Each structure stands twice: as structure tokens, then as C-alpha cells.
What we know:
The protein has helices spanning 5-23, 28-32, 42-55, 57-67, 81-84, 90-110, 115-118, 132-156, and strands at 121-124, 128-131. By secondary structure, the chain is mainly alpha-helical. The chain has a single domain, classed as Up-down Bundle (Four Helix Bundle (Hemerythrin (Met), subunit A)), CATH 1.20.120. Strand 1 (121-124) and strand 2 form a beta hairpin.
Amino acid sequence: MHFELTQGTEILKRTPHTVSALLGNLSEPWVTQNEGPETWSPYDVIGHLIHAEETDWIPRVKMILEHGDSRAFEPFDRFAMIERSKGKTMHQLLEIFQLMRSQSLGELQRMNITPALLEKKGKHPEFGPVSLSQLLATWVVHDLSHIAQIARVMSKQYGEAVGPWQAYLPVLTR
């Protein structure tokens, strides 16, 4: 499927509601358990999504629109959420994410992105030239991949409890 801004924003608008419906008001083990050493819990994922709202998506859109590929994006710290989320409840993180995403989408809408602008290039510090369209498509897929990650991590909490049904639940082996 070719990236369409209107279709992409359909997903971006729903992500905060989706993760809130999945994680809101759950007992702590559901949101703090992970898949083992050096893996993320749902709590970590929401912190990561917040950090991306602050430092990745809209800042990079602005950089492409203002500077094209003359300046590389700032590298993204994929683990910054560990310190930044400390002391916050899941409820607080979900509220922060919802507010920040709303602000990001409002800002994106005010930019009046045209099909021509979607082809404008920026410079990723690792990949080199990338288009605005690729960045925005990545934002959508990033959301969806983290929703899938949350579901996978939560599913694995009952991996042994399902007994022989493990054979029919591939989410437990991924």
C-alpha cells in the first residue's frame, strides 16, 4: 500500500485509545512484566512512545520541511524512557501519551502537508536520505509494532498456564 497521510493519521489517532483500552486500570503485573532480560514491559513501551512524541516524529518532520537533507536528524535514544518514566504510574503515562499525540497530530495538520512535500527528503543519521512520506509511514508502523509488542508481552505472561494450547498460540513463540 502506498502511504496516504489521511489513512496514516487514522491509525495515529487511534493508538492512544487502543493502548489505554488495553492497559488502563490493569493490575501492576500486567503492565510491568517483560519477556526477560533486556526486553520491555508494556510500561516501558508507553514511555518509549512518549519519548518518540517529544523527540522524534514532529521534530523530524519539521527538520525535513525546514532543512531538507542538509542536516541529519538527531539520533534517537531508544532507551531514554527508562529514566524519564521513573515514578510515574501507567495511568499517568497513558494520559501524557494521549495529550502529546493529540498535540502532535494537531501540529501535523497545521503543516498542510501536500503530496509534493511528502517527497521532500531529510537525512537520517544511519540510513541517509529518507522522504517525509517514509518518515510518516514509519510512525504508523512503529505504533502498530508496539501495539503488537504489548499484546505479545502480555500473552507470554500466561504462556505456561495455557498448557497444551501453546501449540495453537503462535504469539507465545515469537
